[in-house]
Write a structure and sequence with these properties.
Distance between the termini: 32 Å
Helix content: 40-55%
Number of helices: 4
Number of strands: 2
Strand order of the largest sheet: 1-2
Length: 88
């Protein structure tokens, strides 16, 4: 499975750790050096769109939860709510 990440996650040690630990391949999406201003990057909009959807839920805007499992549960609830609204 492949995961697209921002240029901030391009460290060789981090890439190797993810491959060893989770058996995933990270593909760094970088902006072309010759461009200026806004550039639509391939696959990057998918992540930004999902974060935008999650920020409609006020509880996810700040980290109120003590346990990571609680945060994960609220992310699932937010995405289920989003999918149910799209069905109607």
């Amino acid at each position: 499975m492949r995961i697209w990440v921002d240029g901030g996650f391009s460290g060789e040690a981090f890439l190797q750790w993810v491959m060893d630990t989770f058996h995933l391949i990270l593909q760094v999406v970088l902006r072309p050096h010759s461009t200026q201003g806004f550039v639509l990057l391939p696959k990057r909009w998918t992540v930004d769109r999902t974060y935008g959807w999650l920020h409609w839920c006020r509880r996810l805007n700040l980290d109120y939860e003590r346990l990571p499992a609680s945060s994960e549960a609220f992310i699932y609830v937010a995405m289920i709510r989003l999918m149910l609204r799209r069905l109607t």
